[in-house]
Amino acid sequence: MTDVQPRTDAEIQQDRPGTASSRRVVLMGAGAVGATAVLSACGTSTSGTNPNGTDFGDNPVPAGSTDAGDGGDAGGNTGGGSGNVLVATSKVAVGSGVILDEVVVTQPTEGNYKAFSNVCTHQGCKVSEIKDGQIICKCHNSLFSVKDGAPTSGPAVQPLAAVPIDVDGDNVVTAA
């Protein structure tokens, strides 16, 4: 009969380096990657212009919204002593509006133009669509009225900040 002597884990590890603890190392690495992913999803960058540090300005205008188009947010001066051109009045439909880089311009009723910040008052996302008389923030489904920027549904309780504008000829311009 053969005399069998049990070996310790340390002795086994010496014979096969890297195998005894490899499972533990893999599990620890997977846990670290998972924790990093969870924590990075909760973090915010401070490089943005919004209060929570995120910018959605690189997002295109979604389907169903109207882009400023040719008369868009060129930012050129009208030359008549007024502010910068935001959008041509012909691009802003009655009961709707357009979402620009920094503002939302609406026309609640014929010839009556309003402008609001395009930053949702709930958590600083930029609004993304205008539909059925509502300015929509898809981050958390807040809805705001095109008439006065007041919240009509969702978690937002504060209205969108009003932006002073004027109509100069065929253009909506920043108030001088």
UniProtKB/TrEMBL annotation:
Residues 69-81 have a biased composition (Gly residues). Residues 1-14 have a biased composition (Basic and acidic residues). The keyword DNA-binding does not apply. It comes from the Bacteria. InterPro entries: Rieske_2Fe-2S (IPR017941), Rieske_2Fe-2S_sf (IPR036922), Rieske_Fe-S_prot (IPR014349), TAT_signal (IPR006311). Residues 1-22, 46-81 are annotated as: Disordered. Residues 84-174 form the Rieske domain. The keyword Disulfide bond applies. Keywords: 2Fe-2S, Disulfide bond, Iron, Iron-sulfur, Metal-binding. Iron-sulfur subunit of the cytochrome bc1 complex, an essential component of the respiratory electron transport chain required for ATP synthesis. The bc1 complex catalyzes the oxidation of menaquinol and the reduction of cytochrome c in the respiratory chain. The bc1 complex operates through a Q-cycle mechanism that couples electron transfer to generation of the proton gradient that drives ATP synthesis. This is Cytochrome bc1 complex Rieske iron-sulfur subunit. It comes from Actinoplanes campanulatus. The lineage of its organism: Bacteria, Bacillati, Actinomycetota, Actinomycetes, Micromonosporales.
